[in-house]
């Protein structure tokens, strides 16, 4: 599950000039001792973005994950791109979240950036079937038009791939349009808001318990603070990715 979507994501990054960065070995790929779960990670350097990370977790029948976050450069104030797809094979359950994650919730900002995501809500109503959020606050870094659904195989296998393609196209469109426009939020404000996103996500993300159980505390703490949400621990004036080299 999700390998086709992973390939599609990587291909779409690649054709827009993305280059894969070299990661520390135990972040690039890490296998749990006891459960044979494998996590693989990629970090891309993409024009117009300061950081684009991708994670694929293969824990067999128990869990399959595709997760990705793209942070635009600070001179652009458009939303962060967020993807979180989970497939629990034993119970046949899908949790899928696709969002343009807004830096602020003001109407003018939402009007400016969310026309296309709104239309995806109309196109894919079966992906907008969520109840209340359990871990996150829907009014912080989530948009009113996020695609968030809990479903089964049919949704995962048929609807999700179409929605995924459209979602990526819409986000690239938003990104390309934003390159030509002047941001309304200042770069320093965008920098603070993106750093806050990392702090907020590191605190709330329900994945940490899962990573602890698969990969242990030492590896998980390093992974969360250095790879998933580096701005949650670092002084935001430091560029977090300078330590990584191009592959
Ligand atoms: C939910 N995400 C979850 C859950 C897990 C993960 C285990 C709980 C599943 C459930 O509710 O049944 C897993 N999250 C991960 C993994 C990683 C991660 C493996 O970050 C890292 C590799 N989460 C994101 C991004 C978004 C996101 C980018 O990482 C936005 C698109 C959203 N995940 C998100 C939301 C939920 C969720 C909204 C539901 C949580 C809730 O109900 O509050």
Please give a quick description of this structure.
It is built from 8 helices and 9 strands. By secondary structure, it is α+β, with helices and mostly antiparallel strands.
What does this structure look like?
- The protein has helices at 3-15, 25-28, 107-113, 115-123, 153-179, 187-204, 207-215, 217-228; strands spanning 19-22, 29-31, 38-45, 49-59, 63-72, 80-88, 93-101, 147-151, 245-246.
- It is of the alpha+beta class and 247 residues long.
- It has one domain: oxygen-dependent coproporphyrinogen oxidase, CATH 3.40.1500.
- Strands 1, 2, 3, 4, 5, 6, 7, 8 and 9 form a nine-stranded antiparallel β-sheet that branches.
- A hairpin with a 3-residue loop joins strand 3 (38-45) and strand 4 (49-59).
- Helix 1 (3-15) runs parallel beside helix 5 and helix 4 (115-123) packs antiparallel against helix 5.
- The chain binds biliverdine IX alpha.
- The site of biliverdine IX alpha has 22 residues, from strand 4, strand 5, strand 6, strand 7 and helix 7.
């Amino acid at each position: 599950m999700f390998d086709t979507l992973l390939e599609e994501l990587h291909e779409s990054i690649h054709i827009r000039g993305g280059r894969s960065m070299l990661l520390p070995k135990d972040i690039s790929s890490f296998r749990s001792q006891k459960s044979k779960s494998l996590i693989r990670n990629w970090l891309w350097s993409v024009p117009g973005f300061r950081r684009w990370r991708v994670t694929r977790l293969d824990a067999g029948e128990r869990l399959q994950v595709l997760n990705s976050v793209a942070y635009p450069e600070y001179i652009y104030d458009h939303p962060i791109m967020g993807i979180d797809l989970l497939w629990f094979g034993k119970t046949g359950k899908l949790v899928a979240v696709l969002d343009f994650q807004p830096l602020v919730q003001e109407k003018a900002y939402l009007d400016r950036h969310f026309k296309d995501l709104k239309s995806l809500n109309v196109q894919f109503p079966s992906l907008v079937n969520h109840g209340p959020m359990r871990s996150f606050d829907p009014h912080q870094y989530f948009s009113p038009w996020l695609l968030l659904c809990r479903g089964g195989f049919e949704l995962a296998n048929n609807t999700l791939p179409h929605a995924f393609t459209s979602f990526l196209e819409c986000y690239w469109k938003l990104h390309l349009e934003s390159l030509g426009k002047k941001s309304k939020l200042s770069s320093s404000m965008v920098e603070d808001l993106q750093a806050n996103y990392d702090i907020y996500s590191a605190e709330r993300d329900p994945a940490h318990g899962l990573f602890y159980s698969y990969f242990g505390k030492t590896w998980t703490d390093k992974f969360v603070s250095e790879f998933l949400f580096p701005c949650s621990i670092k002084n935001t004036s430091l560029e977090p990715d300078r330590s990584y080299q191009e592959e």
